[in-house]
Specification:
- It contains 4 helices and 5 strands.
- It is of the alpha/beta class.
- It has one domain: HAD superfamily/HAD-like (Rossmann fold, 3-Layer(aba) Sandwich), CATH 3.40.50.
- The chain is globular and about 40 Å long.
């Protein structure tokens, strides 16, 4: 099984496209399309690692506007270190053969870095990064 760990803020929205005044769960349609393309081109399952996973309306916004959510990473007492939450999820799912992490924060574990694709809140998900994730999940050399 292939898995995409998906953050939302700074990945599927950005400073330029986000207006929290009008919508608590803003999604940029083009960035959402790119995440959908990753899923379609790789047949990966999406595991929500974003803080949106703690809010039913946030999860609904992801499923309505981006992709179906296969699962969510757990909440841990690790001071919100996303890398620990992702590792806890991976430890419970040995069937994962390949994974990628899309996030604008860098709180990943060292062993996760080859699978980590960093975005920025300034720009969100860029096409170049989308193609790198697709190649990675499909086992192609980038």
């Amino acid at each position: 099984m292939k898995v995409l760990f998906l953050d939302i803020d700074g990945v599927v929205n950005s400073r330029a496209t986000t207006s929290f005044r009008n919508n608590l769960y803003p999604v940029d349609p083009h960035m959402a399309f790119m995440v959908g393309k990753i899923q379609l081109d790789t047949d990966c399952k999406v595991v929500l690692s974003s803080s949106w996973r703690h809010h039913p309306d946030g999860v609904k916004a992801v499923e309505d506007s981006i992709v179906p959510v296969f699962d969510k990473t757990p909440m841990l007492d690790s001071l919100g270190v996303r890398g620990h939450e992702i590792q806890a999820w991976l430890d419970k799912h040995p069937e994962v053969e390949k994974y990628a992490i899309l996030d604008d924060d860098s709180d990943m574990l060292p062993e996760q870095m080859p699978n980590f694709f960093k975005t920025t809140f300034q720009n969100g998900l860029l096409e170049e990064t989308m193609y790198k994730v697709i190649k990675h999940l499909n086992g192609e050399v980038a």
